[in-house]
């Protein structure tokens, strides 16, 4: 089904945010099994497979044998994944800076505090 510019951008942003969420979880929590990562992110197992397949195809993550249980695979963030996450964080900070330019620093802190109370 064709999409208009706004819906295409929204769909692309949703995909990128999910992918960056996976990269951030691996960066902060270290390697994890696909199941553990899915539980941490509250993602459906089928969605995790799609996300990790896409990330793996781009070289952002790899699936290594778990040294504790060779039947399991651990998802590991690659250097390319680290670089992708850093680029995404830099872009997000720039967007945030532009978006919140009209707020004083104290107002930004208040907004951040209020937003952090919302359920994820």
Summarize the model shown.
This protein has five helices and three strands, in the order H-E-H-H-E-E-H-H. It is of the alpha+beta class and 120 residues long.
H-E string: HEHHEEHH
Number of strands: 3
> Order of strands across the biggest sheet?
1-3-2
Helix content estimate: 55-70%
Kindly provide the radius of gyration, computed on alpha-carbon positions and rounded to a whole number of angstroms: 17 Å
Overall pLDDT level? 86
Q: Looking at the structure, what is the overall shape?
A: elongated
State the low-pLDDT regions, or none: none
Tell me the structural class: alpha+beta
What separation lies between the terminal Cα atoms?
30 Å
Number of helices: 5
Described by its quaternary structure, the protein is single chain
The proportion of strand residues reads 5-15%
Largest sheet: 3 strands, antiparallel
3D architecture notes:
- By secondary structure, the chain is of the alpha+beta class.
- It is built from 5 helices and 3 strands; from the N terminus they run H-E-H-H-E-E-H-H.
- The protein has helices at residues 5-29, 34-41, 45-57, 79-99, 105-116, and strands spanning 32-33, 61-66, 69-77.
- Strands 1-3-2 form a 3-stranded antiparallel sheet.
- A hairpin with a 2-residue loop joins strand 2 and strand 3.
- It is elongated.
- The model has no long low-confidence stretch (mean pLDDT 86).
């Amino acid at each position: 089904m064709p999409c208009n510019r706004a819906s295409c951008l929204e769909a692309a942003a949703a995909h990128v945010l999910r992918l960056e969420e996976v990269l951030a979880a691996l960066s902060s929590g270290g390697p994890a099994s696909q199941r553990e990562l899915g539980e941490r992110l509250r993602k459906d197992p089928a969605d995790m497979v799609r996300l990790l397949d896409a990330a793996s195809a781009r070289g952002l993550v790899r699936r290594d044998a778990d040294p504790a249980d060779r039947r399991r695979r651990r998802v590991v963030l690659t250097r390319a994944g680290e670089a992708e996450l850093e680029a995404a964080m830099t872009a997000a900070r720039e967007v945030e800076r532009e978006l919140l330019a009209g707020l004083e620093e104290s107002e930004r802190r208040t907004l951040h505090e209020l937003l952090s109370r919302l359920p994820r």
